[in-house]
Amino acid sequence: MAGVDEERIKALRQLVPEAFVDGVLDVDALRAELMPDGEESGSVEPFGLQWPGKRQARLLAVQDPSLTLARVGGEGADEETTGHVLIEGENLEVLRILQRGYRGRVGVIYIDPPYNTGMDLLYPDRFGQSAREYLEHSGQADAGGLLTSNPKAGGRYHTNWLNMIYPRLKLARNLLRADGLICISIGDQEVHHLKSVMDELFGEENFINLVSVKTKVAAGASGGGEDKRLKKNIEYLLIYAKDQSELGSFAGKVQGEPLMDVIGEMREAGQSWKYTSILRGAGERRYVKTIQDGDGQPLQIYVREGIERTTVREVMKREGLTEEEVYRKYLGCIFSDTNAQTSIRTRLIEAMPPLKDGQMYELEYVPRSGKDKGRQVVHSYIGRTVRRVIWLGDVASEQDGVLVKTERLGTLWDDLKYNNVGKEGELSFPNGKKPVELVKRCLELIEDDQALVLDFFAGSGTTGHAVYELNRQDGGRRRFVLVQMPEPMEGALATISELTKERLRRSARQVREAGATAEQDLGYRVYQAVPPRVRTWQAYEGSDIAELEVLLARHVSQLEEGRAKNMQAEVVQAEDTLWKGWRAEDLLVEILIGQGFPLDSQVAVREEYATNAVWEVSHETVPVRLWVCLDAQVQVETVRGLTERDAGTPVVWICLDGALSDRDKMMLSERVTVQTM
């Protein structure tokens, strides 16, 4: 039975990581997660980060969306073929909307949320906020703004920030795949609190790294008390996995710096640059013998005769080349040598005589551990003392015309260039931008060049730019979903979301000019958070019971009155269940989201149904197809065609309530799943 319990606990940890404290299941925390509207247990609060409003922040994460999405035609690029999406709307509400269509489908999340410097604007979320109130506060219905300041002197400085970030991260976790990652840029104001929140929401065991990112060279003090602190030149990147056991290896991940910069920096620091030898002629290779390592595995020994060894400086003089030109021309032949003591080298020295001038040993074997485990490698040895050869080509390469020296990726990222960040995408952004290379490195942490990428603090659109650029470099087919609220801003562009669109347009042009193929997706489609077209009860926040009863009675009366009128005329009207002014294309988006289809689903018209307009919605990640008819009446010919269709991919049929007779519903139910609205 213990094994069964362990499996249950493991499954529960994946479903509700917030219920585990110090690795142990906390029943009260589990009860609070599963029954958020229930009464408090009264027990002492467990270990963990607590703050005023945390319970309400949990409730915000489980609240149903009050809005839906509508496509905004003409705002994007290559709109009919692109798989990239930009959503204009407040990100908490949008994350709620995306729960069905994107749950478990996102490979990487990168976000750059407000750092809470005391000058940031935060989202004052309201539990139970109606669609109308949302639109008013977001500026889509009037001139009001949704964001409010969060000064340090306000008394709720950290509380407000935590209440903002907690529900968004809780919802974001649901969207990640089992092998997915989330990377969060953050400053030192909230990094400690964010780490505690992430440990709670994702589980401590899924913490990957806290990366220090060098942002700029430290400068002089800037006043305001900062003369009593060291100048900041570091920000942080917090990385968590959805499930670390499903995560791929980071062993092959590297970071790079221009090779000539590395050489110059080492010389300025008085350090010796070792890669100065060149093997110009490899001579002739012949097999000598096979020996064994300590585990009895074969080590095949070869010798090369007539090799020609020279130096970088000698080639510069002989061929009249600059140092960089020599490194570029002979990159694969440049090496350093070392007398590092290894068991393999020792066995080679014991088995073979010293090398003569013009000779080099090569040893072939299959390592049983390390980064080359399981694949055949060749090690070279040179000189009278049989020194191991280290090839520069193993740690350097040419990337986009630049020689780059690489090393295994660590937790100090000091090679990212912040000097030209303001010019990236050909747009400035007063709220700060991150380098495209930073986001690209985050995306490369998972081995999937077709991953879905999410950024729900899109800002200037750096994540979209990074996806475009990385796809150009490696031929990948990553897709992005960006979320940005239409927050007013000063300048030629009225809102930040307008700036996001312009950045995507300009970065797409830059990527094309850099050599993108004609097939690469450099478009994007725009959606906006709007009230639903289907009539639903709007949440009531007041405390007057009499007023609530009047509103409820009016809502029911409106629905019943419309249906009774049309039943007498033996015809259904869309206005019975839909708000006035609805458009079929908007309603179709609302339906597919509600049915768990992503926004890049394929939509086609079923031409064989001539008497009705029937749309088919499909997506490679959804095991069923959606057939939608929004006509007032589903005709007999359509019903007959549906009942006679060949059984294959399961179909969900959706139409207006009353568009089908009870008899037709029964007939169709034998072939398809019928839903009405």
Automatic annotation (TrEMBL):
Keywords for this protein: Methyltransferase, Restriction system, S-adenosyl-L-methionine, Transferase
Span of domain DNA methylase N-4/N-6: 108-473
Organism: Tumebacillus lacus
Protein's UniProt keywords contain Transferase: yes
Name of the protein this chain belongs to: Site-specific DNA-methyltransferase
Family designation: Belongs to the N(4)/N(6)-methyltransferase family.
PROSITE patterns: N6_MTASE
Organism domain of life: Bacteria
Record-annotated membrane-spanning stretches: none
Pfam families named in the record: N6_N4_Mtase
Coiled-coil regions listed in the entry: none
